[in-house]
Amino acid sequence: METRDGLLYYKNKLAIPTKKLQRNLIFECHDVPGAGHLAIEKTYLRLIEDFYWPNMFSSVAAYVPRCDACLRNKQANQKPFGLLQPLPVPARPYDSVSIDFVCALPRVHFQGRTATAVEDFHLRRQALLEEVKEQLERANEEAKRKADQKKRETTFLPGD
């Protein structure tokens, strides 16, 4: 640290002692029309060219995401949420099948009903699939039995 003309410098950069002056400088490097509302890193790089204060990056990182103009005008950089249109109603059973993966369920204080509901859904589905399999096997056996009843012996003579 050194003093020149009554000002404090740190590694040839003007040291900014008060929070109010720090906020004003961040405002000048980010908010004014010529600054262009740059992101955290670019605003920080602009500031460190001439100024210094402890935890400068943290100050910039706290200020920029709260900039009112940026919040109103810049596009969100997160992926859009899931489907916003309802799915069509299926015409027949199993026309549309979906599976929900439930991970990291929150701890619940009412006897774990959330986890139980997920488990019950799975067990219900499993029981339904087993019942469908049994019915298909019975229907297959019945069709075979009826086909065997209609079957008759046919004998062919030479030349037929």
Write the layout of secondary structure elements.
Elements: E1 2-4, E2 7-10, E3 13-15, H1 19-30, H2 40-48, E4 51-52, H3 56-63, H4 68-73, H5 113-150
Parallel strand pairs: 3-4
Antiparallel strand pairs: 1-2, 2-3
Helix pairs in contact: 1-2, 2-3
Pfam families: Integrase_H2C2
Organism: Chromera velia CCMP2878
Domain Integrase zinc-binding: 18-75
Overview features:
160 residues, alpha+beta, Endonuclease III, domain 1, 5 helices, Integrase_H2C2
In CATH's first tier, which class of the largest domain applies? Answer: Mainly Alpha
Would you give the CATH topology of the largest domain? Endonuclease III, domain 1
Helicity range: 40-55%
**How far is it from the N-terminal to the C-terminal residue, by CA?**
117 Å
Distinct helical segment count: 5
* Radius of gyration, whole Å: 37 Å
- Overall tally of structural domains: 2
Quote the average pLDDT.
81
User: H/E element string?
Assistant: EEEHHEHHH
Q: How many distinct beta strands?
A: 4
- Largest sheet strand order: 1-2-3-4
| Largest sheet data | 4 strands, mixed
Examine the secondary-structure arrangement and name the CATH architecture of the largest domain.
Answer: Orthogonal Bundle
Q: What would you call the structural class? A: alpha+beta
Gross morphology: rod-shaped
Low-confidence stretches: none
The percent range for strand residues is 5-15%
Kindly describe this structure.
- With 160 residues, the chain is α+β, with helices and mostly antiparallel strands.
- It folds into two domains: 2-73, Endonuclease III, domain 1; 98-151, no CATH class.
- The chain is 46% helix and 8% strand.
- It has five helices and four strands, in the order E-E-E-H-H-E-H-H-H.
- It has helices at residues 19-30, 40-48, 56-63, 68-73, 113-150; strands spanning 2-4, 7-10, 13-15, 51-52.
- A four-stranded mixed β-sheet has the order 1-2-3-4, with no helix packed on it.
- A hairpin with a 2-residue loop joins strand 1 (2-4) and strand 2.
- It is rod-shaped and about 125 Å long.
- Pfam families: Integrase_H2C2.
- InterPro entries: Integrase_H2C2, Retrovirus_Pol_polyprotein.
- This is Integrase zinc-binding domain-containing protein.
